[in-house]
Amino acid sequence: MNRRYEVHLRQVGRWWNVDIPELDLYSQGRTLGEAEARARDLIAEALQVSADDIPVDLVVPEAAGPLQLVRQARAELMTAIAAEQQALAEAVHVLVTQLGLSQRDASRMLGIPQEHVSQLVSGQL
């Protein structure tokens, strides 16, 4: 199932209230994990599918700002990791192929394991 369901959560005392507005379903759980499981179960029951097949997006309105910052930082991190991998591949190509350095020396210069250099040389990464 590709359809994702938004589950609104609000902590009230020691309980989490669960609201699935799209399906007009409500429940609660003692823990966040229990609340999420209860939401999946309710959606699965309403749609007559397995709860394991229900992707949900948990929304806690009071935490929306900080969580958005985390998502943004993670996206930026993934972009930076991809850029680093590209730069490493290019540097390994120059150091080993064009300048004739050994993989051990390239590894030392780049601060990465020799196995990583070997994988970049062979095109495995």
From TrEMBL:
Protein name (Swiss-Prot/TrEMBL): Type II toxin-antitoxin system HicB family antitoxin
Species this chain originates from: Streptomyces siderophoricus
Higher taxonomy: Bacteria, Bacillati, Actinomycetota, Actinomycetes, Kitasatosporales
Highest taxon listed in the record's lineage: Bacteria
InterPro entries named in the record: Lambda_DNA-bd_dom_sf, TTHA1013/TTHA0281-like
